Amino acid sequence: MGSPDYRSLGLKVGLEIHQQLSTGKLFCSCPCDLSEQVVRRFMRLLRPSQSEMGEIDRAALEEAQKNLRFIYESTPFDCLVEADEEPPHPVSGEAVRTTLMISKMLGAHPVDEIQFMRKIVIDGSNTGGFQRTGLIATDGSLAADGKKISISTICLEEDAARRIKEEGREVVFRIDRLGIPLIEIATGPEIETPEEAKRIAERLGSLLRATRRVRRGIGSIREDLNVSISGGARVEIKGVQELYLLPLYIDNEVRRQSALIEVSRELSKRGISELKPKKIDLSKELAKTKSKVLMKSLGDGGRILGIRLPGFAGLLGPDSDGTRRLGPELAAHARVSGVGGIFHSDELPAYGITEVEVDRVRKELGAGKMDCIVLVAGSNENTEAAIERVIARARQAIKGVPEETRDPMPDGITTYSRPLPGRERMYPETDIPPFTVTQDLMEEIGNQLPEYPEETARRFIEERGLSGEQADALVKSGFDRDFDELVEAEIPPKTAARTLINTIAELEKDGLDTSRLNSEMIKAVLRRQTSGDFAMEAVPMLLGRMIEQGETLEQALNSLDISSVSDSEIERVVESIVREKRDLILERRERSIAPLMGLIMSELRGKADGKKINSILTAKIKSVFE
Amino acid sequence: MNNVSAIVERMSKGKRMQEMLEAKGISPGDLVEVTSSGGRIFRGVVMPHHEFSGESVVTIKLDSGYNVGIDLSDTGSLKLVSKAEPRRAHKREIPRDKTKKTVSVISTGGTIASYVDYRTGAVHPAISAEEMVFSVPELLDICNIRAEVLCSVLSENMKKENWTQLAERVCEHLNSGSVGCIIPHGTDTLGFTAAALSFSLSNITAPVVLVGSQRSSDRPSSDATSNLLSAARLCTGADLGEIVVLMHATTDDDALSIHRATRARKNHSSRRDAFQSVNEPPLGHIDAGGITLREEHIVRAKGKVEVDARFEEEVALLNFYPGLSAERFRRSVEGAKGVVIAGTGLGHVSQGIIAEISSLTRSGTAVCVTTQCIWGSANLNVYSTGRDMQSAGAIPLDDMLSETAYVKLSWVLARTRDPDEVRKMMRNNMRGEMTERRIL
Ligand SMILES: [Zn+2]
User: Fold this and answer.
1) Which of A477, A499, A500, B286 has a CB 3.0–4.6 Å from the CB of B256, allowing a cystine?
2) Are residues B202 and B290 in the same domain?
3) CA–CA gap between residue B373 and residue B81 (Å, rounded)
4) pLDDT per residue over A446-503, tens digit each?
């Protein structure tokens, strides 16, 4: 299957990029750091607050129906503000300035007075039940590939708590991340291809990093995607952390919406315009089933509930391209009500449910050839709610694609998470005084605009002698500031660049959390390396040790037994190996260098420079066979 | 920028924007089109003016839900697009369920019952009994509610006359069939009101539960919900005939403490578990497992509740501190018929103040002494200073809370001015306000 023709499908994508700042938290004096150290836990409940009009946000209401208990983990990096036990402090001036700076860089116009709002979010990710957010600037633009994409809004908001796990009706969050400033930049829905979305996201990311006030590492930048095609609907995919997956999510969403539009057309062709299925308890028909899932539900005192979807046959399973259709959608809605999923006739017999059982159930439900049947199993209460949700979602299928919020999965597909939040979800945060954006302030910020990424790269090439590739890599990865600092500390530019580009990538590949690395650590290690205390080979080992064990450089040198050896010591080791392997050298001459090099390196690992060993070894070998 | 003097200056001028809007016939809730001084055009709904907003700044709610402040000085302008639709009268009856018991709710204001108007974003306290009940409609799953809004004042503005009215209303509600009475109250002075009810009411036939909230009820995380629901459970499910304070026991939402009215004190400015029982364990707890009460609790009385809620106005409560001059002390207690001094440590004041105590008591003013340490007991027998204070006529109140002592002295002085009688009543443990045993 080839790529769809996005333009003719009328693909429209809007991007919302969320970048964490490193300025300190937005409404308290806690640092912007994450922690694995849980100091204590506490339990809270959230419920939608009712306005006098009796309006409750529909997304908020759906969350409330889940009746969840929220367990919050507190760490050394949060205080009473994050715990919702103390009013917020005035907004961090540094965070506002940084947001105004990026606004200026994107040509957006700041509002005259910033007023923070409470956006109702009762999924537990905010202890207060709302996220604080303020609109900072509007109407900017970004040029990329000769096309101008509009920047509709730039907001400054607080990040949510980290979701740790979910067990039954209990959800565990850690509040260290709560309150970290997030800049939210929203583009207009003018992006027309998945690749274009990726390029825009990359460009915004590098502009943000140019301010040098942003956090780095996994999760420090997240994207929301608003995707629609003609005849489809606006769907928000929330919280994509891997930039390289952006095109895949968009492509899959295009395919999903196209498939759902096709389903709707087919239903209309089959004359299905409404849906009033009868719910039937099928526990008796399936009492003797060998299906483990069904047996378990029945054994726990639950039941099996079924419906017939007239005319839906063949529309729940995947289409001929393998694109998922209604099945996963209905299942996701059922799961909201606490059941494990659904069974539908497009995939049955399966899961231990036999053909005989399927026939019996079809008969009981009165299902004909063109009908589909759907079963859910679980407690009486859950199955009732789940089947109602399945029916509601099946009704939407007649109309087409519903607007909704979806969660990105690691494999590039998405699943239903909740309805799009309604309008009435914001009210003013009266605990925080408004922030006046004065002309003077904007002038001051205008005079302090950072170097743009392309300027930085050019400077690295022209002044520091880096290759274009290296300069680009430094700027794209956001290590340009560290590079400047290292070079200022008289670390040779090539050494600094190599460490920042290659070494850090290697450490990440080994699964180490490189967000714990700071330029002071790198500087300390490279200084000692430059003055010849140990070899370049020891640098990744030392840094790895320092971030993994939290050791100081001295401690790491000790635990790894790294100390540099004198040239005469290297000669001694080389000589003894050369003597030992004399036969090999005589036999293989120059080709013996590689195996011998390996032997020597393992003896001197990290203590001497590979190049130096190589030159000594080469000389010694030559002297043997010459 | 946002410095203090700028804010103060704006506050004094803040009204101008409102006046300008009024002149154009525009009020909060109306849809307007605004052209900022910078020439940018916004469309949105006018919001009420924030106290700290600039004088020429109008706040509008954009379609996205965000509020922004727009400066209209110089060339800015504003025009009305359409008036707000008149608010639909939204009258809801409180339903009754004959199988359920009836609990009274007498509201005094505070953050426990407040509403958000999402259209204007304003948060205001519930002003009708219905609004109050429907802010936590789950109450109706537990009991029938007989609701009354007695007053709507910030708790720092409560006066002794409010205590009197409240005591009388509680008496009437309990004497006409309610199985309990819940009193939503601002937390700042909740302890004072609790003590006032405690001294005013006797032969109490049902739980009288003061509840507050440290997070206002317009927030999803409000503690008002669990505090109110637990209060309803206490009213319908416990054999308790006392005035109590019910608030979070910890920062968690599923553990609540029941404090005896005369012992409850707000010991934190913002945490949910701000209230503590001082010098004794809480009277009881409520959690998922149910209600547990200490053996010492008083059970529901038979017959009718009695009320005597008179309070003497001229009573002073003050902290002694190093450097407090006799002169300043004299000015603070001038005209007082009774004074409670929270002394240092065991209850001490300086030599200079002892002389003032002496002249006060000689002229017929009652002087009581508590400890400003909050925990522990005043004891004027240990040091010579204490003994001198007693010789000067000071009445030591042992481990009574200073706030409770102030309320009790106000109540006692409304019934007698006889020095011996006052001393006797103040030192008599009437409502569990004093104990002789304090356990480790
Ligand atoms: Zn904090």
Assistant:
1) B286
2) yes
3) 61
4) 999 999 998 999 999 999 999 999 998 888 877 888 899 999 999 999 999 999 998 9
Phi, psi (rounded to 5 degrees) for A610: -60, -40
* CA distance, residue A507 to nearest chain B CA (Å): 40
pLDDT band at A509 (very low <50, low <70, confident <90, very high): confident
Q: What are phi and psi of B255, to 5 degrees?
A: -135, 120
For residues B119 and B251, membership in a common domain is answered with yes
- Please give the order of strands across the beta sheet that includes A343-344: A280-281, A303-309, A372-378, A343-344
Determine phi and psi for B431, rounding to 5 degrees: -130, 35
**How close B138 gets to chain A, by Cα (Å)?**
11
- Please tell me whether residues B176 and B262 are part of one structural domain: yes
Of residues B61, B160, B266, B408, which has the active-site annotation? B266
B220: chain A residues, CB-CB within 8 Å: 46-49, 60, 120, 122, 128-130
pLDDT winner (highest mean) among A70-74, A204-208, A425-429? A70-74
For residue B221, the chain A residues in CB contact (below 8 A) are 44, 46, 84, 127-129
First and final C-alpha spacing in chain B: 53
Residue B54 domain boundaries: 3-82
Is there a contact between A14 and A224 (Cβ–Cβ < 8 Å)? no
Residue B76 and residue B125 share a domain? no
Per-residue pLDDT at B12 exceeds 80: no
B contact residues 223-262, partner A, Cβ 8 Å cutoff: 225-226, 250-254
Q: Do residues B135 and B254 share a domain?
A: yes
DSSP label at residue A191: B
Residue B188 among the catalytic residues: yes
Quick one: B245 and B107 in the same domain?
A: yes
Q: Are residues B303 and B361 in the same domain?
A: no
Question: Tell me, what CATH number does B20's domain have?
Answer: 2.30.30.520
Question: How many A from CA of A522 to the centre of ligand 1?
Answer: 29
CA of A84 to the centre of ligand 1 (A): 10
- Cis omega (within 30 of 0) for bond into A450: no
- CA B130 to chain CA centroid, Å, is 21
- What integer pLDDT is reported at residue B48 of this predicted model? 83
Nearest residue in B to A124, CA atom: B221
Q: Is A456 at the interface with chain B, CB within 8 A?
A: no
Asked if B68 lies within 8 A of A135 by C-beta distance, the reply is yes
- Contact of B137 with chain A, judged by CB distance below 8 Å, is answered with yes
Query: CATH second-level architecture of A270-401?
Result: 2-Layer Sandwich (3.30)
The mean-pLDDT minimum among A106-110, A310-314, B6-10, B342-346 falls in B6-10
Catalytic residue status for B189: no
**CB-based contact B215 A119, cutoff 8 Å:** no
pLDDT of A42 > 90? The answer is: yes
Buried b vs exposed e over B232-257: b needs ≥16 C-beta within 10 Å? Answer: bbbbbbbebbbbbbbbbbebbbbbbb
Domain assignment present for B438: no
Residue B434 included in any domain: no
Partner A contacted by B9 (CB < 8 A): no
Give yes or no for a contact between B342 and B319, defined as CB atoms under 8 angstroms apart: yes
Instruction: Determine the residue of chain B that is closest to A136 in CA distance.
Output: B68
Q: List the single residue in B2, B115, B123 with the smallest CB-CB distance to A435.
A: B2
Query: Tens digit of pLDDT for each residue in B168-219?
Result: 999 999 999 999 999 999 999 999 999 999 999 999 999 999 999 999 888 8
Which residues 27-46 of chain A have a CB within 8 Å of chain B? Answer: 42-46
User: CA nearest B216 in A: which residue?
Assistant: A49
Tell me the CA–centroid distance for residue B250 and ligand 1, in Å: 19
Residue B432 lies in a domain: no
Q: How many angstroms separate the CA atoms of A119 and B250, rounded?
A: 27
In a domain, B95, yes or no: no
pLDDT greater than 50 at residue B3: no
The count of domains in chain B is: 3
